[in-house]
Design a protein that fits this description.
The two termini are 92 Å apart. The protein contains 14 helices and 17 strands. Helix 1 runs antiparallel to helix 2. By secondary structure, the protein is an alpha+beta fold. A hairpin with a 5-residue loop joins strand 6 and strand 7. It has four domains: 249 residues, Beta-Lactamase, CATH 3.30.450; 88 residues, Beta-Lactamase (2-Layer Sandwich), CATH 3.30.450.20; 70 residues, Signal transduction histidine kinase, dimerisation/phosphotransfer (DHp) domain (Helix Hairpins), CATH 1.10.287.130; 162 residues, Histidine kinase-like ATPase, C-terminal domain (Heat Shock Protein 90). It has a five-stranded antiparallel β-sheet with strand order 2-1-5-4-3. A five-stranded antiparallel β-sheet has the order 7-6-10-9-8. It is elongated.
Length: 585
């Protein structure tokens, strides 16, 4: 078997070497001959042009001397011919004994002002030449290079190449024998190793080769193993990737913990919750230190039962419902359901119901009390009746405003309110707001002024922005004393326009500023209810501006007034083009 594979490899190597050598020989020979001929031709063209330039540059040329010198310099035969084809001078023959050259192809082409070339046997010398002719005034010059020189060089080179090829083949044959011997030994070792792979030692793979030598045995053994393992590994890998994709797409955090309390795997959500990510093979206590979480994992792994608990993860300031399930090989997998948003919404709902109930209780109590008083009062007291009815009317109006504000806030927050965005000038928004409240301000002896303006366009719903201005200006007027001033304006801030309403009233304590835009939040509850406020105006402002893609803020200095401002994005070119198209359609 060893002899068989050895001679097979050796024969194969020799065939490859011979084929490669023959191919290179043919390719190099043709390429080299072509290159040599082109090099000779190019050199002869340059020498011919130099000869022509010399003849042109001499006012009284000595043709015989020039031809002789050119022939010696270029190692070629130089000939000078007149326009009729008569040879005037030649470096290798007597011009008087030479034939007329008027019919020579290279001479005919030279007379047309071009470089003429031809290859043929010389009738004068009986040798094959390469001819190159160039035009001169009154005729042409020609150089002829004997092609026999090229043949001699070619013969000498091919002789050297032949012996080099024989030497290379001899060396290659020795190397091929050594390589074949080494491959034969390795293949025998691979056969034994492949049998171990088929029994479960997964270390190698090889393609099948149809033959009766050692390679066939290796291929058969390894191919059987590879085919079986490929199917198993592909199924496992596919299952693993699908499971990982599902777990990473979950909104809940998932983490697997080994029996000794080390993190084995965590999905994307878990890594986001625990920056800079869960460190695998590290104790889980480094990531989550909550004792309830650790206890649930321990009990699930120990009792082989699902454990559920609530965890307040102080590191991320969130609450989770944790479900820990045991894994077959020990350890547990935990799923963390984020309860923070649910609890926040529940608290918001409770606070909202409590606030609405509180806000409605006072006017309802007043209406009920004064109505009962009117029913029990003796008839005929018209002054008391009118006074009580006026109180009932005010409380009913306050309830109506509260209901309207609640509906507006609900529509804005839920996205049910339709906004019609279009480019509108900042000056238009300010002027409309000023005109709407100018009379109200005068009635309360408050001076209202537009102190800065702009013709830049913002992308906004004009009616919604007027509602924003209405809430801000109404608050500024209501909480300003007689003789106060309210300023409206706009300024450019970070590629946006910032509108503001500023007053010089009593101001707002700094501790109240962060909560001003919450529902039902009031700085002075008694004064707010007395002035008819619902406590929802600034919350409506905040949500409308958010829908516009802007932001709102409040600044105040106690005793010096307050400023409420909101930013709106500038109108884009696309929005302007669309608006023009609508206007012209």
């Amino acid at each position: 078997m060893k002899t068989q594979i050895f001679f097979k490899l050796l024969a194969f190597f020799l065939i490859v070497i011979a084929a490669a050598t023959l191919t290179l020989d043919l390719a190099i020979r043709k390429s080299w001959e072509r290159s040599l001929y082109q090099s000779t031709e190019g050199s002869l063209r340059r020498e011919t042009l130099m000869l022509a330039n010399r003849v042109r540059g001499d006012a009284h040329p000595d043709y015989v001397a020039i031809a002789r010198e050119a022939g010696e310099a270029s190692d070629a035969r130089a000939t000078i011919i007149d326009q009729q084809g008569h040879v005037l001078a030649d470096s290798s023959a007597d011009p008087t004994e030479m034939e007329n050259h008027a019919t020579r192809p290279e001479f005919i082409k030279a007379l047309r002002g071009e470089i003429g070339e031809d290859s043929r046997w010389s009738h004068t010398l009986g040798i094959q030449f390469l001819y190159v002719a160039a035009p001169i005034p009154g005729g042409a010059v020609r150089l002829a290079y004997p092609l026999g020189s090229i043949a001699a060089v070619r013969k000498r080179v091919w002789g050297n190449l032949f012996w080099a090829t024989l030497l290379a083949m001899a060396v290659a044959t020795v190397l091929a024998g050594i390589a074949a011997q080494g491959i034969s030994r390795r293949l025998k070792a691979i056969v034994g190793f492949a049998h171990r792979v088929a029994q479960g030692d997964l270390t190698a793979r090889i393609d099948e080769r149809r033959s009766s030598d050692e390679i066939a045995a290796v291929a058969t053994a390894l191919d059987k193993t590879a085919r079986r393992l490929e199917e198993s590994f592909e199924a496992i890998e596919t299952s693993h990737e699908e499971l990982e994709a599902v777990l990473n797409s979950m909104q809940e955090a998932v983490i697997a913990i080994s029996g000794d309390g080390r993190a084995l795997w965590a999905n994307r959500k878990m890594n986001e919750l625990a920056p800079p990510g869960v460190r695998l093979n590290a104790p889980i206590v480094e990531t989550v230190r909550d004792p309830d979480f650790l206890r649930a994992i321990e009990l699930a792994a120990k009792d082989k039962q699902v454990q559920t608990t609530r965890v307040n993860w102080s590191a991320v300031r969130r609450a989770f419902s944790v479900t820990a399930a045991p894994m077959p090989n020990g350890g547990a997998v935990a799923v963390l359901y984020d309860l923070s948003e649910v609890e926040r919404l529940e608290k918001t709902r409770r606070d909202f119901i409590a606030n609405v109930s509180h806000e409605l209780r006072t006017p309802l109590t007043s209406i009920q009390g004064y109505t009962e008083t009117l029913l029990d009062a003796p008839p005929g007291d018209s002054s008391m009746t009118h006074e009580f009815l006026e109180i009932i009317r005010k409380n009913a109006a306050r309830m109506s405003r509260l209901t309207e504000d609640l509906l507006t806030l609900a529509r804005v927050e839920s996205g049910e309110q339709n906004f019609r965005f279009h480019p509108v000038a900042a000056s238009t928004l300010l002027q409309n707001a000023y005109e709407t409240f100018a009379e109200v301000a005068r009635a309360r002896d408050v001076e209202m002024t537009i102190e800065s303006n702009s013709e830049q366009l913002v992308q906004a719903d004009e009616d919604a922005i007027q509602q924003v201005f209405a809430n801000l200006i109404d608050n500024a007027i209501k909480y300003s004393s007689a003789g106060a001033q309210v300023f409206l304006g706009v300024r450019t801030v970070d590629s946006t326009l910032e509108f503001y309403v500023r007053d010089n009233g009593q101001g707002i304590p700094s501790e109240h500023l962060p909560r001003l835009f919450e529902r039902f939040y009031r700085v002075d509850k008694a004064r707010s209810r007395e002035s008819g406020g619902t406590g929802l105006g600034l919350a409506i402002v905040k949500h409308i501006i958010r829908v516009h893609g802007g932001s709102v803020r409040a600044e105040s200095l106690l005793g010096y007034g307050s400023e409420f401002s909101f930013r709106l994005p500038l109108a884009t070119k696309g929005a302007l083009v669309e608006e023009v198209e609508k206007a012209t359609s």
